[in-house]
Amino acid sequence: MAMHTDLSRIAFYICAVLIAALLSVGSPRCLASADWVLTDRFKAQLKDAQNGDALAMYEVGRMYERGRGTEQDMTKAAAWFQKSADKGQQEARARLGILYYDGLGLPRNVNKAAELLATAANAGFSSAQFYLALMYENGDGMPQDSQKAIQWYKA
After folding, report:
1. Residues 85, 96: contact at Cβ < 8 Å?
2. pTM surpassing 0.85?
3. N vs C: which end of the chain shows fewer Cβ within 10 Å?
4. Closest CA relative to residue 96, chosen from 82, 107, 108
5. Does the pLDDT value for residue 23 go beyond 80?
6. How many Å apart are CA 69 and CA 61, to the nearest integer?
């Protein structure tokens, strides 16, 4: 009986080592294929964006913002968000407002941030509602107003 238990442990350890070895060899290939997928997606979105697709413009901005499928570039992200926002994309307005608020990819401008965030917040975008609430709470770019802050936090 003791010999059977020892053999079971040895078999378990061998399997564990083999699985670990396979995972370590397989991981780079998986990551590389994921990178290819993201790179291909970025190229496709960029082509659509360059052809005037407002949603693709937003997606290209997000990909530049996150460094997904391309190098991270906040200035390019802001530029694509602006193009998308100019075509009426509220989600792009929300992202652009956040970039203006945080001063990422363009100079910090709380007035421009408030304008963009208010439009997107009224359209129901939660990220814009949160930042607008934060601005009211801190009196950053607008008069401090706890009631409006609470209203936007609850929205």
Report:
1. yes
2. no
3. N
4. 82
5. no
6. 12
| C-alpha span between 100 and 42 (Å, rounded) | 24
Read off the pLDDT of residues 120-150 as tens digits, 9 standing for 90 and up: 999 999 999 999 999 999 999 889 999 999 9
- Contacts of 66-73 with C-beta under 8 Å, sequence gap 24+, read 68/38, 68/42, 69/35, 69/38, 69/39, 69/40, 69/41, 69/42, 69/43, 70/39, 70/42, 73/105
What phi and psi values does residue 104 have, to the nearest 5 degrees?
-105, 115
In angstroms, the CA 67 to CA 19 distance is 32
Q: What is the pLDDT of residue 32?
A: 44
Segment 54-105, tens digit of pLDDT: 999 999 999 999 999 999 999 999 999 999 999 999 999 999 999 999 999 9
